[in-house]
Amino acid sequence: MLSETSLSKSDLIYPLFVVEGENVRKEISSMPNQFQLSVDNILRECDELSRLGIRSILLFGIPREKDEVGSAAYADNGIIQQALRSIKKAFPEIVVVTDVCLCEYTSHGHCGVVESGNVDNDATLALLAKEALSHAQNGADIIAPSDMMDGRVQAIRKALDDGGFADIPIMAYSAKYSSAFYGPFREAAESAPQFGDRKSYQMDPANSDEALREIALDIAEGADIVMVKPALSYLDIVRRASEEFNIPIAAYNVSGEYSMLMAAAANGWLDRDRTMLEVLTSIKRAGADLIITYFAKDAARIL
């Protein structure tokens, strides 16, 4: 009766990794119980999610072929585009959020166009806008740019508006830190950089004022939802953002946070379900309105 924070299924968004092929269900070695799935198995997953009461997913695509400019990200028959058409036909009630970035699609693994060994921020914007518009044309409900290029929210908003999708909201990865907790995801999405790192465009973990500036800039450019990523080591940023901005706040309970809890539970060091609910409740308590988490299905069974 006196609990100050409540966690519900409607708070949760479940990430899914879609790959080319048929009947593919490949477990991600560093993320127990998480899989790369072909479109047919994505549909089976959506059916299970619907029965569990999870109504939102975040979709990541892994193409069969990659190139320097990530052309599979905005191809008419790209893997995300195929998945979107199938999901929205079979499960129109599921809210499909699509990750917009180039790292899964580029041969070098960086989030943008590389010129002379560096990521060219401005050259990348047109491709991100093209990718976002392609997602919207194929049924995406929410566009989520994760690349951290300056100005990408404005570029995507303009492309969506000009393309007739003014009603499609943007969930911006606004405070995305250069974090060691992304390690397992890079296996899952096959997106590790082939050289260097992403510190030039992701945020310094030591900074918090900068996060508020980044969030404010994205809101000014047209973001409808802003995100803090990762969640657990940045709960102070979630709190500051929720107090500073009157806009929905999402927090991403990322792969490394998931994997370390799963590893501890597998060794009998932690009670998985109790720890999971404590983690998710802490993210909600800090001020998140939406939580992207690989625990969504497990949490839904308990909730």
User: Runs with pLDDT <50, length 5+?
Assistant: none
The major pleated sheet works out as: 10 strands, mixed
Number of domains: 1
For the secondary structure, the number of strands is 12
| Percent of residues in β-strands | 15-25%
Helix content: 25-40%
Give helix and strand order, one letter per element, not per position: EEEHEHEEEHEHEHHEHEHHEH
Based on CA inertia axes, which overall geometry fits?
Answer: globular
CATH topology: TIM Barrel
- End-to-end C-alpha gap: 16 Å
Radius of gyration: 18 Å
- Average pLDDT reading: 93
Entry keywords:
two-stranded antiparallel ribbon, 10-stranded mixed beta sheet, TIM Barrel, globular, 10 helices, single chain, 303 residues, alpha/beta, 12 strands
Describe the protein in words.
This protein is of the alpha/beta class. It is built from 10 helices and 12 strands. The strands form 2 sheets. Strands 1, 2, 3, 4, 5, 8, 9, 10, 11 and 12 form a 10-stranded mixed beta sheet that branches. A two-stranded antiparallel ribbon has the order 6-7. Strand 4, helix 2 and strand 5 (about 95-100) form a beta-alpha-beta unit. Helix 1 (about 40-50) crosses helix 2. The model has no long low-confidence stretch (mean pLDDT about 95).
